[in-house]
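=== RUN LOG ===
request id: a7f3
mode: sequence -> structure
chains: 1
length: 216
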Amino acid sequence: MTKQCEADNCIWMVEGHAADANSRGWQPAELFEGDETRVEEILKAIGQSKIGWQLSKDQFPKDNYPRPDNYPAADKQSVPQIFSSGFTFLSEESAEVVGQFDLGEGALYPTRLWRSDRITPMPGRHFYLNVASKKDAFLPEQSLGVKDIGYGEWQVPRLAQNLKLKFSASALQAADLWFEHKIITNFFISNRLKQALDARKLSKDWMLTRCSVAVD
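=== RESULT ===
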């Protein structure tokens, strides 16, 4: 859904990081090297990154190789603007835009993607996106299409039709990328950031869904 906001009365939910179309078979170099302690640390960090934990640069792998069991091989596919292989990655163009905005507690960390020979680098630069800011603006009683999973948390079905999410005005404050306390798996971006991605023609891979904000 790409309907534009009027003024600054909306935010955008991101689905591109978790979409099957943007999934790529990259694997941290450590998983090829048999360092069980480091592998365990990386797998834990992947889980934490998916729910908005603040992570340090050292918790992310520096190098990623194509999975040998993946077809087509990751280095034979185009690299989307935003994609996932456990962690969330950004291509150089999207990282340049995101880096101009308020990441709050989050960060961008450089990483390297290599071709299957593990010698030749993939073209361009690539980054991990650590979304770590949290807001509590979601208004479930005014929203449609979300699933109550208990414990005060809600789940948004992937690529749901007729989805209507409503947020309080606090969603417009502070960080331009964040997770909501009441919503699992999805993160959100400000309309300012969305417009900047549009201006560079980068929004398509982000798979953005418009969400309304209740403003006075």
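=== NOTES ===
The first helix runs from residue 30 to 33.
The mean pLDDT is 92.
=== END ===
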